[in-house]
């Protein structure tokens, strides 16, 4: 277009460049000034200060125990607040926490807890039954406070504290889980002042007043959470001088940081990472039995309590033979060997073997083994024969084309989806792998055929069992229920009701096993594997640490604070600050200075030429 | 790549439109008054654009399927009344037009709503993360603009010779590299360390924590090196090419021939006549790049665990945390509008053709 | 045969001859650009490999159950680039992935340029308030953060190749629209358009017979440049986990590599090739695009004056 029509006044204009340079500098300065370069002064690092740094990948959703739901947040709360009871590191049985003793009344409806006298809040005040009663009562009366743990108090009728050491909870119905109330007890005198529990995040005033083994001293969103040991902790103070949870968005970055000694511990390792770390010096890879099960869920026809059906699950899945065939055509051994590369245990019952008291295995004749031929026979029996194109089609003419809901963030879902497509494809079954960041919407609407499903199991199995009862279904299609997979089975429900009211441990365990057997037979929840917890820590920073279970257990996400509370610093503390990073720091500063100098030189040359012009 | 993806590598700088130009081509303001009219017009245009962004962000994110309230309550027993109260709390029970007017009124007064998942005001969450993003990308844009200008000028002067070819070739190659990939390679090489190369830079994050004063500044600078290098490497080509092209264009112009004929020295002519004129489209482009700053580093922030807006956006999108997504979108687009406005306002001031 | 039809035939054959001539002229000019030729050559090779992929590696390469190797093997004679976490040959996947990456790049760029051309021609031809409104919308699309918008679109829709194409296509058209509009205005100011209108040519006739052929070169250049952008955006979306999990693409391979922990395990052979492939294709298209552009508009600096 027109480039020459306007005669240019060839005016020397260094203005443009100066303006640009000024603008650039101003921007750099603004950016620098906007960054808190001088945060609140931290305590000077005494020599020999021993810091335990743990890499975490999840953002903290809230530091308020009333709101926090993510694992990282509840782990933080375990460290800074006491629950009434805790779990033994050896075998998960309930042991004293804030309460030293707990017992039910003969009618099973009233529980009395004795609160210990040697637990104090970090501001010096005594932790009492009053605090516990206030915590539960707030959750029972304030909707905001019930956000995270409301289900624990749903069956509570009345909570009182007749004396500072005595807490009384009256129930509406008997409840066997009263020694497993995973609710952090909060200091009433601090929390009473809060206005709106739905919005209070407990992240403005540090240190946070608590009575756990650690005291939270500092927190920066998506950067770190820092703790100091609670010297007055009744069980004894932790041995490290500082605990830091450091945030790494990227798993590789966390592993690299571990290799360099920037962090002492990293979890959620991939098989490749575990293999390469196992070869590294001063690093121990901890491949422990996990607390999760990983299952193939089938949609049993979504419905609500009022009997309305909704969703669009494939009708063929209502036929138990089809469900069995799908599972029989799923090679669990290959999944363990190839996808988890040995870092998992083949699935059996619903509750992982780690919780040995409740773990159950199917009998030889009950077990659905991997057997494609049998799967084909089952499908033929069910009336889904192969057509000429090799596809299985029902009598209604509808082919066996399923969708499976997959979590886009979980590589295992995607990998197993690929295998299933090929295994089932050979049988004439189509499979579409629907990977979503947010699976909740189709899931809650019942708009799925199959789904990858998994839950972390607590030492008390009540919760993971409750999500398959009819009572957990949503009231109407518009509501949300606690149900996992819309299962509603009379026999399962009867057993569930029995175990809830059974205060005898052995009898309750037996009922729980019967429930798992029933669940197995329905074929709605097919457990494929129990993935291991694959973690690693630096042995030159941590000399000893307690796993849970004590023999061969894991470290991150324990039911208790055992790992970080028990960790003993290594004697020679040469790398904890990262000696490698100090050379790096020097190089880094040099690079930065060189870049800045280059900029200055550039601007200066320009200026000089301007000066020349002015002569 | 992230910062350049929406402004394709067009060399047609001489055609006036460096990719984004919201106004009529080249203002011809002849007086201060004309300039004021021009400014008023531009301000008006920016206001309209900003309003349009507000409207879009509201409706765009309403098409994300699903009900945030149900997503948040997934796996818990929640009664219809509780759901209704949550919807009330988030204002989701109102008819859409009413939600919209409320949203606009609040947004104009600076209130972007409350995040569903973090239970905190969106403005606060963004303000918390904004400095980190500004610092990282601001520094990167400044460096790559200066680098691009410098190399572009050199390239144009040595036009057609080997230096120019190598220069342009390297820039184009780096421009073609996916930024996240380059970041990963830099981490492998300089953070983890390969062979003789020690892992000399941190693997991610913005600070080690526990440093104060100068130590803190050095620590942040140390953490910044690799992400900045990544952004600069994939970003400077654009500035370089635009600068080179417009300078070549200037060098072919009649007035330069005239100036040369008058006996002015060649390099002086170039330095004092051609370069300033050629800077025009390039400066515009620098501002546009600044506009991309907020949104541009999503990938690099992800790869380097940088605690900025990019990561926040990604988290918000997966819930979907509507108020947060909307707020971030407004901030991202607002930055672009602001920088375009600045470019437009500066244009007549810088344009030597405009006699003021 | 009637006279008018013969005349028409002659006219059209003349037009064809003219076009052939201009193509030849174009090619002669293009040939002088070494970088452009280099890019074209590289593209030809890559396209050939992508087309021949079924012969070279077989469609079996994607199968996980028949994977020939063990997980994450390092490069060897059997697997020149090593294997992925399923034990599949990475070289095979790289070749197979070229198909998706190229398809997505081409189709997304084509979609984007098609939208841009349509909007640009309509706005340029009709002018008036229609043009004002259209260009306002275009400007407003220009200030939208493209990557953010594409991420949103890809999140909203189901994970498939089409989603990615659509997300890239509908977010990247405004630049083309602006350029095409300017070109349309220039073409329509030429006297022969006035003549054509006077002879009774309607809007459709003018736009399709006169304007379109004249903006085609510009559109071609835009498409070529757009493809490299589209390929990079595809890789980005796939890397963020927004691609189709069922197909193998280069961006998806990088995402797989990252998920497998290749970075911290030092498996550079898994990470490097897909990135290099993306960069090579993007560079090749950019080189071609720049060459095309400078042929059409020689005053831009690339020419070897």
UniProtKB/TrEMBL annotation, chain A:
Identify the Gene3D superfamilies for this entry.
Dipeptide-binding Protein, Domain 3, Periplasmic binding protein-like II
Q: Where in the cell is it found?
A: Cell envelope
Give TM segment ranges. Answer: 585-605
Q: Does the keyword Mitochondrion apply?
A: no
The answer to whether keyword Thylakoid applies is no
Checking Pfam families in the record gives: SBP_bac_5 (PF00496)
**What residue stretch is flagged as signal peptide?**
1-33
Keywords annotated in UniProt:
Membrane, Signal, Transmembrane, Transmembrane helix, Transport
Solute-binding protein family domain segment(s): 95-466
PANTHER family found in the cross-reference section: PERIPLASMIC BINDING COMPONENT OF ABC TRANSPORTER, PERIPLASMIC OLIGOPEPTIDE-BINDING PROTEIN-RELATED
Q: Which family does it belong to?
A: Belongs to the bacterial solute-binding protein 5 family.
The protein in question is named: ABC transporter substrate-binding protein
From TrEMBL, chain B:
Where is it localised?
Answer: Cell membrane
Region entry Disordered, spans: 1-29
Q: Which residues cross the membrane?
A: 43-64, 130-151, 172-194, 214-237, 278-304, 324-347
Q: Which Gene3D superfamilies match?
A: MetI-like (1.10.3720.10)
Keywords (alphabetical) are: Cell membrane, Membrane, Transmembrane, Transmembrane helix, Transport
Q: Which parts of the sequence belong to the ABC transmembrane type-1 domain?
A: 130-347
What is the protein's membrane topology class?
Multi-pass membrane protein
Q: In which family does this protein belong, per the annotation?
A: Belongs to the binding-protein-dependent transport system permease family.
Which PANTHER family does this chain map to?
OLIGOPEPTIDE TRANSPORT SYSTEM PERMEASE PROTEIN
Q: What is this protein called?
A: ABC transporter permease
Organism field: Streptomyces chryseus
The lineage, from the top, is: Bacteria, Bacillati, Actinomycetota, Actinomycetes, Kitasatosporales
TrEMBL record, chain C:
Q: What is this protein called?
A: ABC transporter permease
Sorted alphabetically, the keyword list is: Membrane, Transmembrane, Transmembrane helix, Transport
Q: Which residues form a coiled coil?
A: none
Q: Where in the cell is it found?
A: Cell membrane; Membrane
Report whether Magnesium shows up as a keyword of the record.
no
Q: Which PANTHER family match?
A: OPPC IN A BINDING PROTEIN-DEPENDENT TRANSPORT SYSTEM
Q: What organism does the record attribute this protein to? A: Streptomyces chryseus
Chief subcellular location: membrane
One Pfam family this chain carries?
BPD_transp_1
Locate the ABC transmembrane type-1 domain: which residues? Answer: 98-289
Q: Which domain of life is it from?
A: Bacteria
CDD domains in the record: TM_PBP2
Membrane topology, as annotated, equals: Multi-pass membrane protein
Check the record and name the InterPro entries matching this protein.
Answer: MetI-like, MetI-like_sf, OppC_N
Q: Which family does it belong to?
A: Belongs to the binding-protein-dependent transport system permease family.
Q: Where are the transmembrane segments?
A: 35-57, 100-125, 137-156, 268-292
